[in-house]
Design a protein that fits this description.
heterodimer, A: 341 residues, mainly alpha, two-stranded antiparallel ribbon, B: 191 residues, alpha+beta, Alpha-Beta Plaits, 3 domains, three-stranded antiparallel beta sheet, 8 strands, elongated, binds iron/sulfur cluster
Chain lengths: 341, 191
């Protein structure tokens, strides 16, 4: 006879995983809409407008289009890898969320049971997130390699080179955060930023903002977003690694990309902006709303950047990664270490 | 020398605090909040051009309803693309202002480049370029405009000042698509 509390805990875990996965699956729909609206308004246009009121049904129209599209596998492609690549890109994007804390504890009304608003509190959460989100690159490389197309291949190569260069800087900024919060667990990192605004890692002057800048630039490069979206540089590469993909397989890549965007926003909030902690004492606002609000601001920020900055050249990308970000993070690491003695 | 060095330090500081990025971002933020300049054409708004606009040709009549065109063929001679065909005939029933009127007056809109030379050449100001601009159709039937069609007054009256955005309705019928502008409900364009 197994312990009843074990079963309940297990059931809770399954429910939480289910909820998070569902949300993540649906999330790209509003995100594509918002991205196009933001693009439209920044370019003084309207964005989607005709499908439904204010174009609200546009994502569904897109979804139908993507599902109905012919699924093309090029004749000379490596069929197995070609089919595997979208999954390889998509899975890590989901798996990352196992470690991300959305909030602390929450008591379900009526049955008086405490649930934790995270799936797992890993003691090395920050390493887990970095490692798993790094795995997503395999999807891009496999996709580029297996399509047997020069553009896709170059796109895949670029993305791997970019990943290697910037992963270092991002990891350094993670070390910085670990130094500031004295823990590798994301939960502890958030808790260490409790209190008010000034306890956030970002406001740990003078090193906080520098770590944040390094993290921001590095992760922008890692998730292949403008201004570092060289793997899918339309001007020179067609569409980069997903040139040969169509229909749902392409949609999986898009899904992975949007989830990566959300992951980076969430990580910025968790590592530097106090997670679910309120910036100052405001009664009646549940912590999860603070968390969501900050994440939404970040997502907007990334879209805003996307439609403002032009794309960097490839050599500039490498220069920024190796010659600026890594030396700066080394220096910053020393300063942080000295400050924390 | 020292001036140059100071400049470099200046540039460095600028780079460190991302002034260029901040500038760019604030510009795009301004655009983001200022609202769009897209006209909700065709089903809500329609642009009514200024009088000087050069759209579809119109053939005019004088105040007694007689055709102003005297079939002198000057317009077809002046036209750089030779898209106007005028065939004159004699008529003393008072259809035109003289006893020479056009039997055929047609313009091939596919070739017309809306330069307005025809209206400059016309001695009687019979041909004018009007303000109708929705000239597309799904077959080639609307490319050739005949005299009879051009003699019908255009949708925007000559007296209307123009240069405004009018409220409009979109009508789709088997006879074709039509965007009807309500000239009483107008506003200046938002940009
Ligand atoms: S507008 Fe120019 S091109 Fe067109 S009919 Fe008149 S003269 Fe010819
Ligand atoms: S429209 Fe004017 S220029 Fe052309 S034939 Fe008639 S009168 Fe002459």
């Amino acid at each position: 006879m197994p312990d009843i509390s074990l079963i309940v805990a297990l059931a809770l875990m399954v429910i939480k995983v289910f909820i998070v996965t569902t949300i993540l699956f649906v999330l790209p729909l509003p995100l594509t809409y918002v991205e196009r609206k933001v693009a439209g308004h920044i370019q003084v246009r309207l964005g989607p407008w005709r499908v439904g009121p204010h174009g609200l049904l546009q994502p569904f129209a897109d979804m139908i289009k993507l599902i109905l599209k012919e699924d093309i596998v090029p004749d000379k492609a490596d069929k197995f890898l070609f089919k595997l690549a979208p999954l390889m890109a998509m899975l890590p994007a989901f798996v990352v969320y196992a470690a991300i804390p959305f909030g602390d504890k929450w008591t379900i009304p009526f049955i008086d049971r405490e649930v934790t608003l995270y799936i797992a509190d890993m003691n090395v959460g920050i390493l887990y997130v970095l490692a798993i989100s790094g795995l997503g690159i395999y999807g891009l490389i496999f996709g580029g390699w297996s399509s047997n197309s020069k553009y896709a291949l170059i796109g895949g190569l670029r993305s791997s080179a970019q990943m290697i260069s910037y992963e270092i800087a991002v990891s350094f900024s993670a070390i910085g955060v670990v130094l500031l919060s004295r823990s590798l667990s994301l939960l502890e990192i958030v808790k260490s930023q409790g209190g008010n605004l000034l306890h956030w890692n970002f406001f740990y002057l003078p090193v906080g903002p520098v770590w944040f800048a390094i993290f921001l630039i590095g992760s922008l490069a890692e998730i292949n977003r403008v201004p570092f979206d060289l793997p899918e540089d339309e001007g020179t590469l067609g569409a980069g690694f997903h040139t040969e993909y169509s229909g749902m397989r392409f949609a999986f890549f898009m899904l992975a990309e949007y989830l990566a965007l959300v992951t980076v926003s969430v990580m910025s909030v968790v590592l530097f902006f106090g997670g679910w902690n309120a910036p100052f004492n405001v009664p009646f606002v549940p912590p999860i709303l603070w968390f969501l609000g900050k994440v939404i601001l970040f997502i907007y920020f990334f879209m805003w950047v996307r439609f403002t900055l032009p794309r960097y050249r490839y050599d500039q990308l490498m220069t920024i990664g190796w010659k600026i970000l890594i030396p700066v993070s080394l220096v910053n690491l020393i300063i942080t270490g000295l400050m924390k003695i | 020398m020292s001036g140059k060095e100071r400049l470099n330090i200046f540039e460095l500081i600028k780079k460190v605090v991302f002034t260029d990025f901040v500038k760019g971002l604030s510009i795009t933020l301004g655009y983001n909040v200022r609202g769009s300049m897209t006209l909700k054409y065709p089903d809500q708004e329609k642009w009514i051009p200024y009088k000087r606009f050069r759209g579809l040709h119109t053939l005019n009549r004088d105040e007694n309803g007689r055709e102003l065109c005297v079939a002198c063929e000057l317009c077809s001679k002046a036209c750089p693309t030779q898209c106007i065909t005028v065939i004159p005939m004699e008529d003393d029933t008072g259809r035109g202002i003289s006893d020479r009127v056009a039997k055929v007056w047609k313009v091939d809109l596919v070739r017309c480049l809306f330069c307005g030379y025809c209206e400059d050449a016309c001695p009687t100001r019979a041909v004018r370029l009007g303000r109708d601009y929705e000239l597309a159709c799904s077959d080639s039937s609307c490319n050739l405009k005949q005299r009879e069609e051009l003699l019908v007054p255009q949708s925007v009256p000559e007296s209307f000042e123009g240069g405004v955005v009018a409220a409009s309705t979109f009508e789709a019928s088997p006879a074709g698509l039509r965007v009807k502008a309500d000239l009483t409900k107008t506003k200046k364009r938002p940009w």
